[in-house]
Q: What sequence folds into this?
């Protein structure tokens, strides 16, 4: 693992929400709220959270598609928001994206070969070599090069996702942002795509920002994992430490929501009851811990105070006054917040 | 309660006749939950829609079979009689809750309409009933929900509304077609919880259709595994998960990204794509993707044979050979890493 390829510092992306006639009221939606992350070359960072937690906004901002309210995104040490158009064009070569919906991310009127060739053409790849290059790419992702002239609707979801991946790797980018790349696929096909992404990473030394709502998928691909709740990172650690001893009650809730393919274990399981739906409009008004309203171990203290994002062990950070111990949320006796957080 | 006998549902398409549901037999008792598991394109949705004939016909037609529901064959009923059954006795929840609700009407109006379609009530009475239904499915502010448009609700809320609509006629059987596929894991857990609770309250039978074996592990009493229009394995949840007897079920189980695996483990995927139903392969349909395939599999289609009480599987391998082959393969895999590729036929 090399040096930091991407650094996100105190990134905030707020959207204003206008309501009432003639902008009477204005409220902010804090889609990304003071997020700090770093990503080393060659590793995969998993970002986990429910829909609406701001993970896609974070991805879009890193791609330079959204303007941040404050904070910086450094790619190879360079602030991507200080670049002019020409420099931005060059940057886009190095950051590519794989989308969630494999069908709507491919133009239905273009031949799949042309779809994969599009980024090559945009960056002046010699016309003569394109067909050969595209065939190589198709081969690499497991699509027969003979299918160059077919249209996207002739392929299944998994195959379309492979085509999307071929397009993303065409320019040999340094960073690929994968926004829920497997959540629209069948389980059997999910495994194929995850394996493909891992193989390509090894071969081309790619770096992934892997966004998902499913921790079991992230466990199989990410070196480090960040959990996001309402725009804030609430837990961040290396894969092993993260899954061995998750500290944040929200992480426990996410883990407990995953159905186990094992009826006996499933019946014996002590599931954390999930309170409420995901709060969509938590505006600026909320005080205290963002997770307070759904937290299974919330205390009065949490309602009034915002937990700092701190190191609980050396490489494991979480934002909670009562970090979960012994991997059990149920029946936990909360300790005093001022002594448990150092 | 519901008995399906040798049902065939074929689709007449440009590429020829697609055997979406091919000779299916199963039954469901009162208060029972059946899970139907299969990949996209295995015919499970066509099956679900065939049960209350929501498929446009033509192109779908039923060359054979019967669907016995409380002594009547649903395939022989008139459209009017079917309308009385739909919603009142059998109702359905669909995968995408946004496209199943009408975007230009408020939830209240759609729910009241559903209630009044099933009960003789005044509008006022129907509103009261609608509110209690929304409370039942766990919506915290039912009054506000009634006044909202579908786009103002989250995915989980919309699916709850769909369940409320489906339950408005107190059906005896609820068919849930991938009810949680479009949702987050947390919302999925809530919806599954809700289905179990409502089932014990109303004694409804449930047919739940999914591609994720994890989803049915907790819910289903019995599980049918479908592959290219046919049942390939059938049994209790215990049979399917602990006495797996068909290579396809086994492969599906292994493909689930499990929390037991670590970062360096390789997921086991099923190579290739599900077969094209217009021109299925010769012999066993799973033959081209099966890790244990032998030339013999190609000769004849395996029949669904009884291997335990209520446990049926369609594979020519007997139990012993299957067990030893599984061990062999697992041993081989732990030795060297496999390179996966999804090279397969394009669906066209």
A:
């Amino acid at each position: 693992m090399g040096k930091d390829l991407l650094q996100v510092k105190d990134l905030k992306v707020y959207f204003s929400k206008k309501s009432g006639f003639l902008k009477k009221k204005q409220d902010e939606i804090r889609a990304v709220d003071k997020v700090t992350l770093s990503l080393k070359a060659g590793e995969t960072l998993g970002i986990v959270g429910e829909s609406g937690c701001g993970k896609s906004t974070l991805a879009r901002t890193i791609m330079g598609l959204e303007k941040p309210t404050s904070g910086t995104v450094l790619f190879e040490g360079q602030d991507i928001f200080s670049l002019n158009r020409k420099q931005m064009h060059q940057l886009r070569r190095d950051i590519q994206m794989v989308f969630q919906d494999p069908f709507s991310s491919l133009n239905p009127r273009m031949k799949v070969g042309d779809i994969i060739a599009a980024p090559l053409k945009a960056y002046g790849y010699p016309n003569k070599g394109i067909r050969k290059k595209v065939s190589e790419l198709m081969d690499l992702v497991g699509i027969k090069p003979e299918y160059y002239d077919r249209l996207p609707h002739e392929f299944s979801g998994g195959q379309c996702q492979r085509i999307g991946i071929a397009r993303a790797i065409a320019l040999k980018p340094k960073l690929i942002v994968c926004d829920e790349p497997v959540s629209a696929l069948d389980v059997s096909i999910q495994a194929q795509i995850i394996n493909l992404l891992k193989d390509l990473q090894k071969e081309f030394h790619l770096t992934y920002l892997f966004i998902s709502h499913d921790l079991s998928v992230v466990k199989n691909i990410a070196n480090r994992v960040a959990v996001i709740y309402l725009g804030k990172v609430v837990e961040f650690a290396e894969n092993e430490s993260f899954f061995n001893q998750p500290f944040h009650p929200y992480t426990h809730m996410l883990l407990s929501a995953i159905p186990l393919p094992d009826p006996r274990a499933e019946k014996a399981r002590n599931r954390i009851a999930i309170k409420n739906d995901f709060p969509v409009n938590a505006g600026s008004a909320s005080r205290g811990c963002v997770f307070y309203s759904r937290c299974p171990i919330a205390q009065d203290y949490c309602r009034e105070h915002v937990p700092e994002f701190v190191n609980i062990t050396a490489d494991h950070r979480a934002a909670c006054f009562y970090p979960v111990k012994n991997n059990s949320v149920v029946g936990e006796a909360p300790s005093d917040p001022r002594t448990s957080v150092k | 309660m519901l008995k399906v006998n040798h049902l065939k549902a074929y689709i007449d398409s440009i590429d020829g006749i697609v055997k979406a549901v091919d000779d299916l037999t199963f039954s469901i008792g009162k208060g029972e939950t059946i899970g139907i598991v299969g990949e996209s394109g295995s015919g499970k949705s066509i099956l679900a829609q065939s049960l209350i004939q929501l498929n446009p016909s033509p192109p779908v037609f039923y060359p054979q079979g019967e669907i016995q529901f409380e002594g009547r064959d649903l395939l022989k009923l008139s459209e009017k009689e079917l309308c009385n059954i739909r919603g009142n006795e059998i109702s359905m929840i669909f995968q995408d809750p946004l496209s199943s609700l009408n975007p230009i009407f408020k939830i209240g109006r759609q729910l009241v309409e559903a209630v009044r379609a099933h009960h003789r009530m005044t509008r006022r009475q129907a509103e009261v009933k609608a509110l209690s239904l929304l409370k039942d499915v766990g919506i915290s502010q039912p009054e506000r929900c009634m006044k909202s448009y579908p786009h103002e609700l989250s995915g989980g809320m919309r699916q709850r509304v769909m369940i409320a609509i489906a339950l408005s006629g107190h059906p005896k059987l609820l068919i849930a077609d991938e009810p949680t596929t479009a949702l987050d894991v947390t919302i999925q857990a809530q919806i599954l919880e809700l289905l179990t609770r409502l089932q014990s309250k109303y004694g409804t039978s449930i047919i739940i259709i999914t591609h994720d074996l994890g989803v049915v592990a907790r819910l289903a009493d019995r599980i049918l595994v479908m592959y290219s229009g046919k049942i390939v394995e059938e049994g209790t949840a215990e049979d399917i998960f602990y006495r797996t007897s068909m290579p396809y079920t086994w492969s599906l189980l292994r493909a689930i990204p499990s929390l037991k695996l670590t970062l360096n483990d390789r997921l086991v995927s099923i190579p290739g794509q599900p077969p094209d139903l217009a021109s299925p392969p010769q012999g066993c349909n799973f033959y081209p993707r099966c890790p244990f395939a032998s030339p013999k599999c190609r000769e004849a289609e395996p029949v669904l044979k009884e291997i335990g009480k209520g446990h049926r599987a369609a594979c020519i391998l007997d139990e012993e050979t299957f067990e030893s082959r599984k061990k062999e393969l697992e041993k081989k895999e732990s030795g060297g890493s496999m390179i996966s590729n999804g090279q397969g036929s394009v669906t066209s």
Observations:
- The longest strand of chain B covers residues 16-28.
